[in-house]
Amino acid sequence: MLRIFSKFQDYYDCTLGSFAESDVVIRRDTKIHHVLQKDLEPLGEFDGKWDYVENGPRGKIYCHRYIGMVGFCGKWYFFTYELAAPTYTEIRPGTIEYKTMDEIKKNNGDKSLFGWKKSANYKDPNKEKFWNFDIFEKYGPVLFIRNYRKTPKYQYYPEHRQSQIEIVSWPNTKNLNLQTVLDPYTALWELEHWYDCHARPDDAVVPVGDDITRLQAYGFDKKTSFRKPKEKER
Predict the structure, then answer these.
(1) Do residues 180 and 98 make contact, with C-beta atoms less than 8 angstroms apart?
(2) Which residues of the chain have pLDDT under 50?
(3) Angle CA(201)–CA(202)–CA(207) in degrees, nearest 5?
(4) Is residue 3 situated within a structural domain?
(5) Handedness of CA 120, 124, 127, 131 (dihedral sign)
(6) CA distance 16 to 1
(7) Which ranges in the chain belong to alpha helices (H)?
C-alpha cells in the first residue's frame, strides 16, 4: 500500500486507499533552497508580476498582484496573489487565483511611463526541459516558487550578492489551493507514478528480507549480480 510520511496533511491524502497494491513510500520533507539566478535557465521576459496600480503611494507605479508557481511532477501551475500587511512578505489569505498560461502571457510584463512592454522572448516553463524535467530531478516532484524575477540584463553585484530565487520543495499544496486545478486522485496518481519511475537515493527504502530479496528489490539478478570470478588453478 502506498504510504506517505509527513508532518502535515495535504489535500490528496484522502485518496491514499486508492493504491492498495502500491509499495511506494513518500517522505514529504519541506526544504527551502536558495538558488542563484545564474543557475536557473532564464525564462526571457517572464516576470513574477501580474498587474500594476498607477496611483500608488506618492503617485508611483507599483505592483498590485504577483505570480506564484507550483510545480507538480513535471508540470507548472500559476496563480496570482496579493501580499499581506503589515510586513508584505507573505501571501494574503483568500487572494490566490489560478490562471491559464494564455492569461499569464497576456498580463505578464513590465509597465513603465511608456506603457506595457511586450516581448517575443517570453518562455513557457512547461515547454523548457530545464523547468519541466531537470529542476524536478534535482529538488523533488513538488515545488513552489512564490515569486520568480527575470534575470536583469546587467548584474552589478559580486556573485555572493547576486539575485536568488527561493524554491520550496514539498510545500503544503492545500494552503496554495492546488486542489482547484488538480483533483486529489490525479495528484496522488501522479506522485505514485513519479516515484515508480524516478528512483531517488535520498528517498530509498531498504527492503526487508534476506540478501537475495534485497538484491532483487534493487533490480539485480540473483544469478549473475555480484558473482565472484572463478579463481584460476595454480
Answers:
(1) yes
(2) 110-116, 160, 200-208, 214, 218, 225-227
(3) 70
(4) no
(5) positive
(6) 8
(7) 101-107, 129, 135-139, 184-197, 211-217
CB-based burial of residue 206 (10 Å sphere; 0-12 exposed, 13-18 middle, 19+ buried)? exposed
Which amino acid does the sequence have at 158?
P
Domain span holding position 152: 29-188
**Residue the block writes with cell 538484491:** 215
Q: Total domain count for the chain?
A: 1
In a domain, 231, yes or no: no
* Strands 49-53, 62-72: pairing kind: antiparallel
**Cell digits for 231?**
579463481
Burial of 30 (0-12, 13-18, 19+ CB in 10 A): middle
Look-up of cell digits 546587467: 154
